[in-house]
Write a structure and sequence with these properties.
This protein is of the alpha/beta class. It is built from ten helices and eleven strands. The chain folds into two domains: 86 residues, Rossmann fold (3-Layer(aba) Sandwich), CATH 3.40.50.10860; 128 residues, Rossmann fold. It has a six-stranded parallel sheet with strand order 1-11-8-7-5-6, with helices on both faces. A three-stranded parallel sheet has the order 3-2-4, sandwiched between helices. The structure holds NADPH dihydro-nicotinamide-adenine-dinucleotide phosphate (NDP).
Length: 291
């Protein structure tokens, strides 16, 4: 029996529909949520991400503020812009698209954003709050992963979860989220001994590595939930193609449920950014959150 497909596109569309209702409700109270997106430079992938984020936010009824700055922008000019956005009453969420040019310290920039408007969830206050189990804005990709996992298994207590990849934006925050759900977690990385054996112990296996097809079919426990965060551009039969970190065809024979690439975690990441913006708007304005 093949794995069931976890359809991230459909889940994101459902979340967008809920967001439209929430934004409409806030707008009727005179509090339309506002999202400011800042792009420094002309990195082609970043430009595509930013365009998508703006399009989706406008589509959902948000107020959108777009700041496109040249690569030569100084760190202090960027910090001044962030200070203005922090103070702007109609801005609820601030997103600075990463990576930044080399002459700008991304940590300094992240730390300059008001934690209450930090819809990427990268500010040290939000990172700390998440690990303390306190209310926090949660990084969008791990939040999207959790919503997809919970769409197939509501009660995760006691489940063994393995996350491959320990980045600050995916692996580490996802560890905290799965811990909240009472999973027993292994956070694996490039130095992990016998990765296939570790992966085979997982009821929930998340791959966030950036290596096409790293996770093979025989690394997967039969019936496991497999979440593929990886986005890798490869050339196959003379064509550019997007693939994940999991050998999809092989995994489909073994897993219980599996996300595709594209159409899995990717669409949920943008939907969760907008969800965080609604969350931030509700908190800032003292309105109960719909989520
Ligand atoms: P990073 O490069 O920051 O981290 C990669 C992690 O993978 C590191 O912890 C690294 O280990 C580990 N790793 C590398 N090679 C191996 C290996 N052979 N075996 C085991 N572990 C390994 O990546 P990100 O977290 O930023 O992104 C990971 C992937 O997810 C990328 O493909 C990225 O494009 C994608 N992504 C997708 C998103 C989405 O919306 N769907 C959003 C964000 C990322 P070590 O720490 O030891 O070096």
């Amino acid at each position: 029996m093949g794995a069931s497909l976890i359809d991230g596109t459909a889940a994101a569309a459902q979340l967008h529909a809920e967001l439209r209702v929430a934004v409409q409700d806030l707008t009727e109270r005179g509090a339309t949520p506002g999202l400011a997106v800042v792009l420094v430079g002309k990195d082609p992938a970043s430009s595509v991400y930013v365009r998508n984020k703006i399009r989706k936010s406008v589509d959902a009824g948000f107020r959108s503020f777009h700041h496109e700055l040249p690569t030569s922008t100084s760190e202090s000019d960027l910090l001044s812009l962030i200070a203005r956005l922090n103070a702007a009453p109609d801005v609820d969420g601030i997103l600075v698209q990463l990576p930044l040019p080399d002459h700008i310290d991304a940590r300094k920039v992240t730390a300059a954003i008001d934690p209450a408007k930090d819809v990427d969830g990268f500010h040290p206050v939000n990172v700390g709050s998440l690990s303390l189990g306190a209310p926090a804005l949660i990084p969008c990709t791990p939040l999207g992963c959790m919503l997809l996992i919970k769409s197939v298994r509501k009660d995760l207590a006691g489940a063994s979860a393995v996350i491959v990849g320990r980045s600050n934006i995916v692996g580490k925050p996802l560890t905290q989220l799965l811990l909240r759900e009472d999973c027993t977690i292994t956070l694996a990385h490039s130095k992990t001994d016998d990765l296939p054996l570790v992966c085979r112990s997982a009821d929930v296996l998340v791959a966030a590595v950036g290596r096409p097809g790293l996770i093979r079919g025989d690394w997967i426990k039969p019936g496991a939930i497999v979440i593929d965060v990886g986005i890798n551009r490869i050339e196959r039969e003379g064509r550019q193609q997007l693939v994940g970190d999991v050998d999809f065809d092989a995994a489909q024979q073994v897993a219980g449920a599996l996300t595709p690439v594209p159409g899995g975690v990717g669409p949920m990441t943008i939907a969760c950014l907008l969800r965080n913006t609604v969350e931030a708007a509700c908190r800032r304005r003292g309105v109960g959150s719909p989520f």
